[in-house]
Description:
Pfam families: DUF4365. This protein is an alpha+beta fold. The protein has helices at 18-34, 93-100, 122-132, 155-179, 199-215, 219-226, 231-234, 237-250, 253-265, 272-288, 294-305, 310-327, 331-350, 356-391, 397-427, 430-457, 466-486, 489-505, 509-525, 529-539, 544-556, 560-565, 569-583, 590-609, 654-666, and strands at 40-44, 54-60, 63-76, 87-92, 106-111, 116-121, 141-146, 148-149, 614-618, 636-640.
Amino acid sequence: MNSGGDTSDLGPLPISDEKAELQRESIKALNALLKGHDAIIFRDERVEDYGVDGSFELKLNRRMTNFRGQVQMKAAGRLTPLVDGSFSHSVRTANLNYLLNGTAPIYILYDLQKDEFWFTWAQDESRRLNEETPNWRNQEWIALNFTEPFTLASLPGIHARIMKEGRLHRQIHDSLAKATGSEAVVLSIDSESLSITDPIHARDVLLASGVAIVASGFPVEVLDLLRLLDAEIRETARIQMTAGYAEFTRGDHYSALGHIRRALARKSELSARDRSFLVTLRDAAEFHIGLIDAEAYQQRLAVRSQTLEGLEALEARQDALRHRYLGEKDGDSRAAIVEKLREVTAEILGHPDSHRGLKLDARLLLLFLEGMQANIQTDESLFYSEIREFLYPSDTKSATENLQNARCNQLGWEQQADEAQREAYELRHPVLIVQALIITLYVRIGRLFEKRMEAINSHQSYKVPEPAKTSIENIFNEAYRLSHSSGLVEGRLTLDKLKIRFLEVQGDIGGAKAAAEKLYPEADAMGFKAIAEEASEVLEDRTLLMRYEQDIAQSDLQHRDQLQATQSDEQLSRMAMHLLKIIGSPPAHPKKLLGYMRSLRFIAQERCGWCHHLQLLENLTQTKDPAIAFSVSPSRKVICDKFNHISSRESVDVVAIVEDFKHDFCHSCSARDPRGY
């Protein structure tokens, strides 16, 4: 057997060239450098390599994010620095153009002799070349400038940039997709319906729905339809905008920018909404190919948001009210926000520039908050009805009527939601359909959530009824299908979050944790902090349901006095406001109710700290009559339930009456027995 260097007995063999050897050595050295580094993983992707050798994938908290920066490796046996200490390396112009269509593209240059790496960002090089050699795209070769050493110390900065640009790409995609939600759709958006060969039909479809069709995941089909159009129609602003969006979605940002600029040259043909969409699209394309950086893109976006007028200004106000509602905890404030939202929505619906798709988009946003509000009001009314029945068994008419009204509101919301869903399907716009389905899921799962909490409170098991479970699962399936086909990242992650809630409500904590484990890194990496936080709560056993169950279990171990004695002023105020709504004002006075709650806490503290035999005797005529209840503070006496000592007088001042009782009967008592905290 020939084990030496002689291969004559093997016949002719291919010879490995120096370039291939250098590439292999550079990737080996890169893997060696990154060994043990947990935040960035290098993925070797040299199969069918057209200009990308691999990618850096980011990890967050030991979880893979699918956030990637595309990597092009270059190498030399020995690098000679320029006068300023940087290094120059030539590549084909086509290589840079290709790399610019990817996400966070980076060049890494390896010096074999010194075993050192240098790097530069493709977008930074594109901007430099635009400034120094504006016609560089006409050259066959260009020289890249490497100024930064690629070391372990540089990895945090690289990690941060890939993360930042990945989030920005997500933001751009979702904002553009959402912007198409107001566009009318003239046919069912699927591959079969887009098999059009008639130029007139193609023109009508593209003018009415081209942008929406692209957003639904069919950019190639749109570009095929564009080829059917005659030259005059193809040059119109609307068609050029559609072509630009299709090329952008495909990843050909240079072609996209050409179409976008031709559309901008005829922007007077476009509506204000289309012009806004077009400018956003232009900025996104310029960012992708390195004409502007991330900061410039965000700055342009901020400037545009401050100069909105007309219908766009109303939409911005509507969205701001939605965010205020979701961040508000006070019930009365939430109700007031919903009222303001109704007013703004009415303005949008009545605006002369508002067409059917845009009106539906506005209605869906209002429906979302009205559905949440209907759930809250029904739960409150049920709670108030139960307490009212306990306090005043003979006077529950008003509470029962409120509960019936709340349930009617819930049924009315269901009808409106069904109508909105039907309209979304009639419009045949996937983005709006997904939005409608998500709103339905939010509200229906919210109702099940409340049922589960009631079961926990009453120490009962809870099972989601099979019809409700099947219905919700069908909605999930449809919403996921449309989200995936339309590339709606935020929609898909929101569905993942709701799926986790649904699993938890059913008691499937293992399933909820497995889903949260998968969701958290992607949501966190993409900047969806609220979604990531909800997934984190599941993983760390601190969801609202989990904490409520823990609180109930803890309260079962404590005496009622111990719980009442440690109530905060905020808790007392909240309980007093609940009582005010149950009893009504008049007769009840807010200050009298708060004083009453404080007196109950005080006597509980006395039983825990002084003696558990202390009890209050209350003048029931001042609290049990619903016509005058809590219009004045009730007077009390103190009694010892062990020796039957009783106060010689009654008073509305609980502190004074307890101190008098202790002075008269307790100081010499050997049986004093505090309950403790």
